[in-house]
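[09:14] KT: can someone run the structure on this one? pasting the chain below
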Amino acid sequence: MNFRTIFKLYLLFFFVACFEKKSKTEYSQPSTKAILQKDNRKSEKYPAQYELQDSVELTHIKNTFYRNEFGFLYEKTIAQREFKGVLKDAEYFNGIISQEVDPNSFQQIEDSWFAKDHKNVYYSRPTSGGRQITKIENADVNTFKILDGNYRYAVDKSHFFYETEKIKDFIPLKTEQIKDGEGKVIELKMKNKKVNLEP
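[09:31] RB: done, structure tokens below
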């Protein structure tokens, strides 16, 4: 082996060693710290809830809707909480709701657990932890309506819905809605298929 070949091998080993050291020091540890810092910042900006006494940190938008300083949406709601062994209703600000809600146009649909704003339809139901507002994907705002007598069933131009889920294989224009003596829709029927609606 001549001197030139030995020198080239030495340089190659030197660069590989430097690169490995740089990888370990610059890329491994700081990336974990950066992720943790980002997560902490996120939880500070978007806490899941605020207590009633923290309302000074929120700006009232309309009706029961509020935003914090970072623009995250909350709804003032009531949840059951335990006080000295007894369950009582307590007001608080809930951030576990669809962030797509437009507070200015949000409204309940008839006497049901559905709601809408100018762009989306939502399933808005009471729970022990406060009202839950979930966006219904691909529901048509303009044609969405409640099935007669049902607060958990609805229809738009393309689909039937049970709460947030589509009822598959039933086309609204081709489906017969069977009603009971009081006018409540109790069954959907299309050709040889039918589905009984839960009370």
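[09:33] KT: thanks! The radius of gyration is 28 Å.
[09:34] RB: yep, looked fine to me
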